Fold:
Amino acid sequence: MKPAITLFLLTLLPFNGFANHPRDQWLSTDQIIADTQLAQETYERIHPGYDRYTDAQTLNTAWDQIIQQAKTNKGMRLGDYYLKLSETLALMRCDHTKAELPKALADARGTTPVYLPFRWQMIENEVVVLRATADSGLKLGDVITHIDGQAIGDRIDQLYRYVPTDGFTDHSKINAIASSSEHRGGALDHFGAMLWPHSSQVNIHYLDQQGQSQEKSMARINYSAWKKLGGSQRRNFIDAVEFKQVDDRTGYLKIDTFVNYRIPIKPDKLFDPIFKQLQQNQSQRLILDLRENGGGSDEPPQRLLAHLMPNKFRPLKDVRIKTLNLDGLREHLFTWEKSALKPKASKFNQNDDGSYSFKPHVLKATQWIKPDKRAFTGQLIVLTSRNNSSGSTNLLTVLTGRPNTTFVGEPTGGSMEGPTAGILFFLKLPASGITTRIPIFRQYNDVAQFEPGMGLSPDVAASQNKQDLLNGIDTILQTAIDLSE
Structure:
């Protein structure tokens, strides 16, 4: 049986032992058509990067295929529609464009054990266990090879089509497949729960630390239990800033997120004491660790740059929206910034392509920012990873113009030329209950050189080494420390 046919048949099977699961809710052909046509029209009219990386005809075909599949099967299951919608949205190659689980499916994740009982990371092309439940028997450094008799590499390969990313930074998808709060667990669990039959038990084949082949049946867990395996992951800027002195000459600043809207704080309340201490210590080097940082709010990276850039800078040279006309769509949209639903023409200049640019005085990100009086001017070593995207990659882009700066780590996600990001519209599809995200800003970073569709490539490539992991050594950080000696 061909893989594509096998995959299609598997999605028609109910969950083993999970009768009446919400993913099996049946949507009629008319319901699928109504939701799909609404989604297509909304994205075509609003998304400023709709056909930036994928031509409109390819996207038209993808929308049409959803409708044709519904007509052929006289409808579609909710889980299968979510998969098809996610696959279509991922074609736009925008990390902010994705579908959220409808409430019934999201609620089921808290009770139905569909998650693997371990967290993992791709290290040296192997799926390496980082943390696991006590009763799983898995240990740090164990290598997962098969799940329920299928090679884990084959499963991962099937997931790439559903995972969004900016531009052509497909190398960054593996991190989201392993772990992503955006997808209520990594894509292996999130989409896997709708792709493959599940029971409360899973058979895992793995290699232990001694390289011996092992096979064991273990209990799956629910989303709440999976989150408890997350270690020290921090989701708010106020809790995500860590500083210490590596030695008399070198400071270390780690910032795991710029998300500053849940528990807001003035960024300088955190930054000023740190950079004052760097001055007092006469530190010559600073290691800036952004490897866990995917972005977030605008003010924290702007104020961080003010503490790092020696001269005035402008984060963005232009910000555009696609249309001012939301008539016929507005009733299906919601957002945290209500004014965005009724944009004022007086704030924009129209461009030759029909889009609209914010006038220079409207957004702080397009204005020139002066360095802070405590700005650090010594050697800066910035640690990068595949987790970087959106706002963190925008910050990295500005830092490419800073003298005496070296980037160490992995190629990033995000877009050096500027992502489609900023304010998001949320589109509620009435029949399925699925909500999708639509970024409404196209950002143009103030950078002279970039590779279209790509993030930042570090000056010194470094990735976590498995043996170092077992020995408690952070390979990338150690590389940076060695450079600073």
Observations:
- The longest helix spans residues 29-46.
- The chain has 15 helices and 21 strands.
